[in-house]
Amino acid sequence: MSRREGIQRHRFIIHQLSKRPSSFKEIQDFLELQESLSEDKLTCSQRTLQRDIKEIEQDYHILIKNDRSRNLYYIAEDGREEHSERLMETFDLYNAMRIGNSFGDHLLFENRKALGTEHMNGLLHAIRHKRLVEFTYEKFEDGAVSRRTVIPIAIKEARNRWYLIGKDGGVVKNFGLDRMSGLEILQKNFKPVKDYNVQSEFEHHFGIINGTGEEPQRVVLSFTPKEGRYISSLPLHHSQQEVLCNKKEHMFEYYLVPTYDFRMELLSYGHTVKVLEPESLKKEIIKQLEIALKSYK
């Protein structure tokens, strides 16, 4: 059995027990079904299942116990963090791609430019060991190319792109990984950036734009029922709260800074969304819609 098959089996065991407590036979039946789909060796002995349960607790912080009175396994504690779930999703995608190689045109991916993820290992190494990094960077605005020496602070995802948050010339900036080249990890160490916490800096922001000096505020949006169901299943922001749901509209409340990124996201929903609060955001969206309408006249 390969390590990949072991990780895959862990994923399916967690998936089965997340749905409902299950007996050893029910777990085996589910693994057998997945085995027939992937052609990997996934079924296991009860002894192997016990080893898997220990590894799942160590790797994913998910505690699985056996209710001997009902002869059922169940998830007693689920300590998964967001990054752990993303890793599991990535592994699912990897397996789909691997299986999809033999399915021709039945598994379709967007044709898009590389995201610069090849720089991640080097940047994370530099962050961990407090090393300065140097890279060539091309701006989106005017295509200008320059060589930068930066203190790396963190890596952030925003709208399907990855960014380095780093201090450049005394100012914290965002650099798209897909616009980097010639990355070098220098032998020069840096001191941690004081008075800057990346989590708190982006807590009330949507996307990658921050540092505008604006205060977060209450934002209320009304979506059509159909679009509202999509928004409910995939929230726009972690502060999202549902305040109304009926046959006419689906209303959500947020607490954030309505930056350019957020306004562009709202405009992408067209007529399916309406800004109710604050009035300043409502006026800005109306203004942008009027500008767009004029370009068609």
TrEMBL record:
Residues 215-290 form the WCX domain. It comes from the Bacteria. This is WYL domain-containing protein. Residues 119-185 form the WYL domain. It comes from Antarcticibacterium flavum. It holds the Pfam family WCX.
